[in-house]
Amino acid sequence: MTGTGDPAVADASTADRLRRWRMVLGGEEDGTGCVLDGRDAAMDTALSALYGRGGERSAGLGGSAPHVARWLGDIRTYFPSSVVQIMQRDAIERLGLASLLLEPEMLEAVEPDVHLVGTLLSLNKAMPETTRETARAVVRKVVGQLEERLASRTRATLAGALDRSARTGRPRHADIDWDRTIRANLKNYLPEYRTVVPERLIGYGRAARAVKKEVILCIDQSGSMAASVVYASVFGAVLASMRSIATRLVVFDTAVVDLTDQLADPVDVLFGTQLGGGTDINRALAYCQSRITRPADTVVVLISDLYEGGIRNEMLGRVAAMKASGVEFVTLLALSDEGAPAYDREHAAALAALGAPAFACTPGLFPDVMAAALEKRPLPTP
Predict the structure, then answer these.
(1) Which residues have C-beta within 8 Å of that of residue 32, sequence separation ≥ 6?
(2) The pTM is what?
(3) How many other C-beta atoms are found inside a 10 Å radius of the C-beta of residue 217?
(4) Lesser CB count within 10 Å: N end or C end of the chain?
(5) Is the pLDDT of residue 204 over 90?
(6) Number of other residues whose CB lies within 10 A of the CB of residue 169
(7) Rounded to the nearest 10 degrees, what angle do helices 226-240 and 366-374 cross at?
(8) What distance in Å separates the CA atoms of residue 13 and residue 16, rounded to the nearest whole number?
(9) What phi and psi values does residue 295 have, to the nearest 5 degrees?
């Protein structure tokens, strides 16, 4: 033993540990001998309704919208938002509650997040008019949160990348690149004054009002790509708000839909998608290729798990042709916080051999990936 300590404190610690194990094990015959009451009992009831005893599928929630709405309210009371989102996702997947999200009162009770938006988009075609406005409000709330989190850094990062492509020898004071200027004038260092006298200034030119780069976002809208579709739509709207970037947003399954004219509102973009169905990457890339007018100033971003239902060799041939013409081609297996999904490794390897490595990208990394692509630098792949 390393010390006696306070017996009362030790007892309290043991009781708390047993209480936690009882909550984890979720059963009365769990060997802890702990009986829950009050708030702990209510939390245990909410967990049991979803996960049941021994991890088995529970019928505790049933299929009743009022029961589920009450349960949603309970878990928001007892658990933090991040846990609530996980439990909601599990309820939708484990208990088949997606259809209940077509009822307005259910949507008003849920905690909005990216995965919920993906579920709503998959139900879009079955959604009655009485639910549609509530669903749009939920989606708009999530989109607003994402824009607040991602927009300013994206604009700043990409504006810097565009400005660096227009260096000038006569910059305004605010546009001086001091690192490069000092390095270029080190020979003019005056020891007695401990300073460098710059004979030549190096800086960034002011971004021209004309379009400098073109970006095409080509998004796979198969069911597994739901979170990526949400993030890509938000980023598409942010890019479209920058004068110096002409942005096109294309979604595809076995058909191709150009949603560029809806980019002013990412909610409209999202409700213009149709999650699910097959995949024809070759057809989507053919459409994107036909819209390229300035290859050397164009970045094409394909967001897909690469499970191709179209013509594989033609798909790879199009990528090779675009790269040969000067297009910067970026392949993202996912644009989400959850890492790479299942993906076609053979196609990923073939794209890498063409100089278009495929990798999963978090929303936080996306601005840096785009900045590198715009400047034709090596991509910051994970």
Answers:
(1) 18, 21, 22, 25
(2) 0.71
(3) 27
(4) N
(5) no
(6) 9
(7) 50
(8) 5
(9) -55, -40
Q: Show the CA angle centred on residue 215, arms to residues 213 and 219, nearest 5°.
A: 175
Per-residue burial over 240-269, b if 16 or more Cβ lie within 10 Å, else e, is bebebbbbbbbbbbeebbbbbebbeebbeb
**Dihedral angle computed from the Cα positions of residues 79, 83, 89 and 92, in that order, rounded to the nearest 10 degrees:** -20
Q: What's the number of CA atoms in the CB half-sphere (13 Å) around residue 206?
A: 7
**Residue 307 in tokens:** 């499970």
18-54, pLDDT tens digit by residue? 777 777 776 655 556 677 777 888 888 888 888 775 4
Burial class (CB in 10 A: 0-12, 13-18, 19+), 336: buried
The candidate with the shortest Cα–Cα distance to 90, out of 127, 51, 60, 53, is 51
Q: How far apart are CA 279 and CA 150, in angstroms?
A: 29
The mean-pLDDT minimum among 18-22, 73-77, 116-120 falls in 18-22
Q: Which residues, at least 6 apart from 29, have a Cβ–Cβ distance to it below 8 Å? A: none
Q: In a 3-state reduction of DSSP, which class is residue 322?
A: helix
For 74, the 3-state DSSP assignment is helix
Sequence-ordered list of residues with C-beta below 8 angstroms from that of 132, at least 6 positions apart, any chain: none
Are the C-beta atoms of residues 303 and 335 closer than 8 Å to each other? yes
What does the block give as tokens for 328? 């910067």
Separation of alpha carbons 176 and 163, rounded Å: 12
Mean pLDDT of 326-346: 90
Sequence-distant (6+) residues with CB within 8 A of 240 are 247, 249, 260, 263, 264
pLDDT of residue 207: 47
Q: Would you tell me how many other CB atoms lie within 10 Å of the CB of residue 330? A: 24
Distance of CA 17 to the CA centre of its chain: 37
Closest CA to 89 of 98, 80, 76: 98
